[in-house]
Every structure is written in structure tokens, then in C-alpha cells.
Design goal:
Blueprint lengths: L2 E7 L1 E2 L11 E2 L4 H21 L4 E9 L9 H12 L1 E12 L6 H10 L3 E7 L3 H7 L5 H13 L5 E7 L6 H12 L5 E6 L12 H6 L3 H17 L3 E4 L2 E3 L6 H7 L4 E4 L4 E4 L8 E4 L4 H6 L9 E5 L2 H12 L6 E2 H7 L4 H14 L3 E4 L2 E4 L1 H5 L1 H6 L4
Helix pairs in contact: 1-2, 2-3, 6-8
The protein binds iron/sulfur cluster.
Length: 384
């Protein structure tokens, strides 16, 4: 069975005002080389640990800002991955990039190294909002980078957008979406801003007072589906839209329980040892110095090592699967666990079906449009 790889690059030019991802502001220097060296060691030792040339269906290089790395770094990394794992023919190799850090030279290198899907963090085409978010780029920078990416041959591009931003009106959001749609990317992700503790936005009264009210935020969310639908994009997950056949295979794997190994600082894994019935979950250290000293620690000694019990696995099956518009398969649940979906979740399903928030379509159970609106609330009911 093939696995997925996630590779974390924890560097950004500077920290955005809303960001609580594991990333450090850095522009250049030896840290890049030390980190890539440690990462390559971890790739090698992981392959030795789980089996050399284990088949890999998708690789996702995320961050942080992977495109901040100097020329040659991504090619070197993928070369290492390709020498230790068996990348399947047609494997999806995605990479995150931020406008203002891409050059044609780097883009040509990524293509030549096998990157076949680019995910660009735009967030909004409004320069005023970009400044407020603390982004390093303008709309113009994004357009230049996008154009270069197309010229370099990227034919599978995602653009990340955000809604519910301070000072953002519904009209501003819609206008932004249409500007992006005019570029015909293959995939669009749009997430509502979440104020995370410890970020500059969280403690800033001006940000709090300028946030759209809940109804406007919900309305932006609903309009996303309507507008993207007009342009031929289908929603396949709560916040993800694509042209047919351009869904992100890596993320679909996350939501359907495919095992994955996370490599790099703080990266999480979801992995089933041969002798176990259910997978375990564990993460790498989030301490950069510690990671650089010892980039590979046996899985069971990692931070947050957690053996997943059947009950946890059932919960995850439901609330990760329900994020996908196709929902979850009743038959697959019944085959995978010691009790049927009806026995475990019959009363919860009945309640939400009666409220019109969930529905059955043949063998699948999924959220309705109204259910998607309150999905976070519904998911808590699937905790056992
Ligand atoms: S570019 Fe992305 S990862 Fe980096 S600070 Fe901004 S939001 Fe965080």
C-alpha cells in the first residue's frame, strides 16, 4: 500500500499578523543549509525505518514558505526523496509558494525536479488588506509570479484565499474572487479567518472591532460556492474547490485516512505499524535546535506519540470523512470496525437527518448545505 509524505519548511520572510503556523522569520543564511541537511538525513533514516523504496503516491512540501529556499534546495530534497522512496508513476508532488519569493529560475527548477502542483498563498487581491494581514507581497507581485509559473509549465495551480478579514466587505470579497477566477486556476481554497491566540491580530482591538459580523462572514462563505459554481468549480471539501479532476489528491488522502509520514520540524504523521490494528499519531519536535541535532527519532519516541484506539479511529473516520462533500461510506465503516455505523452513531445521524443537516445518498452519509454551515458544531457530536 502506498503512503503520502508531508515535508515541512518552517521559514518565512516575516510573520503574517494572523499566523500561528510553525514558521520563523528569516531571510537568508546558514540556517537553510543546516535545515535541508537535517531534512535529507531524516528522509534517509525514515526510509530505512519503514522500508527502503516504500511506494509514495503524493508528496506535499508545505510551510512556512518553501519557495523562500535558495535555488537548488527543492531539487536536492526531491532528489533525496526519489532515491529513498518509490515515487509512483504520476505521483502528485505539490509545493506551497508565496508571492514575492518566486523567480523564473526557481520555478524552472521545481518543474524539472518533478513538482507538478503549485499552491500559491494570495489571500486577497486587495493591497490594503494584504498590508493589514502583514503579507510581504502585492497583487501585482502575485500576478507576475502566477504568469511566470504558467510560463514555466505549471498546469495545476491552487490559489489560497481568505474571507472574514478585518475591514473586508462582502462586495470586496466577491470582487476579489472574480479577479482570481479570471486567471483560471485549477483549484481554489478559501478559508475564513480564525483569530489564533498569540498572533498580533488576536490582541489587537482595532482588528476585533473591524471584523465582519457573523452573518456577513457566513454569507461570504455561501457566496464562495455560488460564484465558484458559476465558473465551473465544484466544492469537494468544506473549503476546497476545483475544476473536475484537479482535486488535491494529497489532502483527499488526509480526509480518507491514508497513512502519511511528516518530515521536518513539527511535522505530524499518521502511521500504522505492521503489527497494529489501528494507526498511531505522532509529531516531530517543534524545537529547531533539537531537530537540527537529531533529525530522526524513532517513531514511538516522538512528541505526542499516541496509539489510536478503535473509538478514536471511528471518530476520525466520521469527522474527517464528513469534510468531503461525498461524505462517508456506511459499508466501509461496518467493514472496518467491530460495531456498525448504525449501532455507534444511529441516534446522532437520525437527529441531524431530521434537522435537515445530514442526508443519506445510497451507501454514503454526508452533510447538507445547511449542515456545512454548522459543521464544527455537528462534528463535536461525533465524539464518543
Ligand atoms: S506566509 Fe504563511 S506560514 Fe508564513 S507567516 Fe504568513 S501565513 Fe504564516
Amino acid at each position: 500500500m502506498s503512503i503520502e509524505l508531508y515535508i515541512h519548511i518552517p521559514f518565512c520572510i516575516r510573520k503574517c499578523n494572523y499566523c500561528d503556523f510553525l514558521s520563523f522569520p528569516i531571510r537568508e543564511g546558514a540556517a537553510f543549509f543546516c535545515y535541508m541537511d537535517a531534512l535529507c538525513q531524516e528522509v534517509r533514516k525514515t526510509a530505512e525505518h519503514i522500508g527502503m523504496m516504500t511506494p509514495v503516491s503524493t508528496v506535499f512540501i508545505g510551510g512556512g514558505t518553501p519557495s523562500i529556499l535558495p535555488p537548488g534546495a527543492i531539487a536536492g530534497l526531491l532528489d533525496k526523496v526519489g532515491s529513498q522512496f518509490a515515487l509512483e508513476k504520476g505521483a502528485e508532488i505539490s509545493m506551497e509558494a508565496n508571492p514575492g519569493t518566486l523567480t523564473r529560475e526557481k520555478l524552472d527548477e521545481y518543474r524539472a525536479a518533478g513538482v507538478n502542483r503549485l499552491s500559491i498563498g494570495l489571500q486577497s487581491p486587495d493591497d490594503g488588506l494584504l498590508t493589514r494581514l502583514g503579507r510581504i507581497h502585492t497583487w501585482r507581485d502575485f500576478l507576475d509570479n502566477y504568469d511566470q509559473a504558467r510560463k514555466a509549465g505549471f498546469d495545476n495551480i491552487n490559489i489560497d484565499m481568505m474571507s472574514g478579514l478585518p475591514g473586508q466587505s462582502e462586495e470586496n470579497y466577491e470582487e476579489g474572487l472574480r479577479k482570481v477566477l479570471a486567471l483560471k486556476p485549477e483549484h481554489i481554497s478559501s478559508y475564513s479567518l480564525i483569530l489564533e491566540q498569540g498572533t498580533p491580530f488576536y490582541d489587537d482591538p482595532a482588528t476585533l472591532s473591524d471584523l465582519p459580523d457573523e452573518e456577513t462572514d457566513r454569507s461570504m462563505y455561501r457566496r464562495t460556492k455560488e460564484i465558484l459554481g458559476e465558473y465551473g468549480y465544484h466544492r469537494y471539501e468544506i473549503s476546497n474547490y476545483s475544476l473536475m479532476g484537479k482535486e488535491c489528491r494529497h489532502n483527499l488522502g488526509y480526509w480518507s485516512g491514508t497513512p502519511y509520514i511528516g518530515l521536518g520540524l513539527g511535522a505530524s504523521s499518521y502511521w500504522k505499524e505492521e503489527k497494529s490494528i489501528f494507526p498511531s499519531r505522532f509529531s516531530n519536535t517543534r524545537d529547531l535546535d533539537r531537530y537540527l541535532q537529531d533529525p530522526f527519532i524513532p517513531f514511538e519516541k516522538r512528541d505526542c506519540y499516541e496509539r489510536i484506539e478503535e473509538k478514536d479511529y471511528m471518530e476520525e473516520y466520521m469527522f474527517l470523512g464528513l469534510r468531503r462533500m461525498e461524505g462517508v461510506s456506511i459499508k466501509q465503516f461496518d467493514r472496518s470496525f467491530s460495531a456498525s455505523m448504525e449501532e455507534v452513531y444511529g441516534s446522532v445521524l437520525k437527529k441531524y437527518e431530521e434537522l435537515g443537516l445530514m442526508e443519506r445518498r445510497g451507501d454514503q452519509v454526508c452533510l447538507t448545505e445547511a449542515g456545512i454551515d454548522v459543521s464544527d458544531y455537528i462534528f463535536t457530536d461525533f465524539m464518543l
